[in-house]
Automatic annotation (TrEMBL):
The chain crosses the membrane at residues 117-144, 170-190, 202-225, 308-329, 389-419, 439-457. Residues 556-583 are annotated as: Disordered. It comes from Microthyrium microscopicum. Residues 563-583 have a biased composition (Polar residues). Coiled coil: none annotated. This is Uncharacterized protein. Keywords: Membrane, Transmembrane, Transmembrane helix.
Length: 583
């Protein structure tokens, strides 16, 4: 006979003497266990504290099951109710996520080292693209639990089928999509490195895919915060043998108190692996216990920090809209985008339309419709001053948004990482950081970087070695006044090893401080140029050319002098690069 006190309190409420099955078969945990739909007639309540188990001995079933029964019913153990769920896939474990954050950061900060930035951005694009495609598959295969159905059953679960719910990998995909969206604008606008690269169309297509996936993902995340859908989380129980005071049943069974740390400290095992509801992309997989980390239990997505999460979601939405605008003008520098937009808004309608035609056809249309010259001459009066102000305001706002994004998005990226990790920490993972599936992407990145370093520094190392060897030979062959110095020989052989389109790179360790200083000085130059342009946008937009630099690229002084609007320049309404011919 066994002690009824080993059964959780909510299961023994109002139990009476007699057969146990009809009294417990309606409980949540009982109904989730396999083959518990029929009465086995093996359990009978004797009195208030005792239960009798009746079973046959001498067969394989009893000899194998008795150790488990004895384990579960020992008086020093604690049985705690838990929830079960499918774990996050190893693709979205902590280490792969931080690898993705790192590659995005390296691609931005070391963008002038093409051998390094290209490898880092390639890893980031591959990882996030797979995540976006995975999200589209999940979006199509799950119903994401309609609000009316969810509200009719506040604690829904199904031990047979999970397709009427959402998939937990959604909370591993959101960090990837949001981080990529936040950093896309700096990748495009900060520098000409990626904009001038022949792989720019791939970056644009990648951005379109990320934004196309992030928009519905944000809607789903908002619906989750508003309790309009949920995960399939059948109830089960955990068996704990810990003797610490915190391992008592009354301490562990409180809502939200049973976390991963307590589960480990109290030597618990669970029976969630008995459950395997049907789910797309999870054939023959078993559920695991749904345990939060302590940090996520304190900072809850739907708790006191709910408003903070909603604000971050709004920031992600703004980053998406801004990023799509930057993709539209990704081939142009921000100043050219501003000037082109101003010229288009300030031009006469017919003159703007005539930009479609050239040659004799344009001359005939000009003569037929008596089109006025599309330049500053004749654009006087209150109406044209108002047009100039509106055009400058719109074009200037677009430009200032790009400037603000260059400063704000890197900070937002840090906040995004914090929010993403708090969000993902609420859910169990299928592989921990010591599993090969978690750290193998880091090894793969390391091999890619090693290959890139070999390719990027081979000419320097080989040239230096050849120069040193030549100097040693010359030391024997020539007198001191006849042989070339060591430094000069090394420089000559380094240059001889370089490809025609390759130049010697500076030290990677000293590049980052220089990049930060360069970016700061470039932003100041950009603001000075913008204020000069605002004073006279008509003249400032007259020479509308692409200077080939980004917001944090510092042009040469001679080039920068050409970027500032000069008084007395020939004003015209150029819609493209170069000075337009006056109609």
């Amino acid at each position: 006979m066994g002690d009824l006190h080993t059964i959780p309190e909510q299961l023994i409420f109002n139990l009476t003497a007699g057969n146990l099955f009809p009294q417990l078969s309606g409980s949540k945990i009982w109904s989730t266990l396999p083959d518990n739909t029929t009465n086995p007639n093996i359990s009978t309540i004797i009195n208030k504290n005792d239960i009798q188990l009746t079973y046959q001995i001498g067969n394989g079933n009893s000899s194998l099951a008795l150790p488990l029964v004895a384990m579960l019913l020992q008086p020093n153990a604690t049985v705690v109710p838990v929830r079960c769920t499918y774990p996050l896939s190893g693709q979205y474990d902590v280490l792969p996520r931080f690898l993705f954050y790192l590659t995005l950061t390296v691609a931005i900060l070391f963008r002038r080292f093409k051998w390094l930035a290209g490898a880092a951005l390639g890893v980031a694009i591959t990882y996030s693209t797979i995540s976006a495609i995975h999200f589209f598959i999940l979006l199509a295969r799950f119903t994401w639990f309609h609000s009316t159905t969810f509200s009719s059953n506040p604690e829904p679960w199904n031990v047979n089928d999970s397709r009427n719910f959402g998939d937990i990998d959604f909370f591993g995909i959101i960090p990837v999509l949001s981080a990529a969206a936040v950093m896309l604008s700096p990748i495009i606008t900060w520098s000409s490195t990626f904009r001038a690269h022949r792989a720019r169309p791939l970056v644009v297509l990648w951005g379109l895919l990320i934004f196309a996936a992030l928009i519905p993902a944000l809607l789903l995340l908002y619906r989750f915060v508003e309790d309009l859908w949920g995960l399939n989380s059948p109830p089960s129980f955990a068996y704990c043998t810990g003797t610490l005071p915190k391992c008592r049943w009354d301490s562990m069974a409180r809502p939200d108190s049973f976390d991963l740390e307590l589960y480990t400290d109290c030597n618990c095992v669970d029976f969630c692996s008995l459950l395997s509801p049907k789910a797309p992309l999870r054939a023959n997989m078993n559920m695991s216990v749904d345990l939060k980390r302590q940090i996520s239990a304190k900072v809850k997505l739907k708790g006191r920090y709910r408003r903070f999460f909603i604000v971050i979601m709004i920031v992600w939405g703004v980053a998406t809209a801004h990023g799509m605008l930057n993709l539209l003008f990704s081939a142009w520098a921000p100043t050219k985008t501003r000037n082109t937009l101003f010229n288009a808004l300030y031009a006469r309608p017919l003159a703007l339309l005539l930009r479609v035609f050239e040659g004799s056809r344009r001359q005939r249309i000009e003569a037929k419709w008596n089109v006025k010259p599309n330049n500053a001459r004749g654009k006087t009066g209150l109406w044209w001053r108002f047009r100039s102000f509106v055009a400058a305001s719109i074009a200037g706002t677009v430009y200032l948004l790009a400037m603000a994004g260059a400063l704000i998005y890197p900070l937002t990226f840090g906040a995004t990482i914090v929010v993403n990790e708090l969000l993902a920490a609420e859910y169990p993972v299928s592989e921990h950081s010591d599993a090969i599936g978690a750290w193998s992407p880091w090894l793969g990145l390391g091999l890619v970087l090693i290959a890139s370093i070999v390719m990027g520094w081979h000419s320097t190392v080989a040239g230096s070695a050849t120069g040193i060897a030549t100097w040693m030979v010359n030391f024997i062959r020539y007198d001191a006044d006849e042989r070339t110095g060591l430094q000069e020989l090394v420089r000559q052989h380094r240059n001889s090893k370089l490809d025609p389109d390759e130049k010697e790179e500076e030290n990677l360790l000293t590049a980052l401080p220089k990049e930060i200083s360069l970016a700061w000085r470039a932003m100041i130059k950009r603001m000075e140029e913008f204020f000069n342009w605002w004073r006279d946008p008509v003249t400032g937009s007259a020479e509308n050319r692409d200077e080939g630099v980004g917001l944090v690229d510092l042009p040469k002084d001679a080039e920068y002098a050409q970027l500032s609007p000069q008084r007395g320049a020939s004003p015209s309404d150029s819609i493209t690069a170069g000075t337009a011919r006056s109609p």
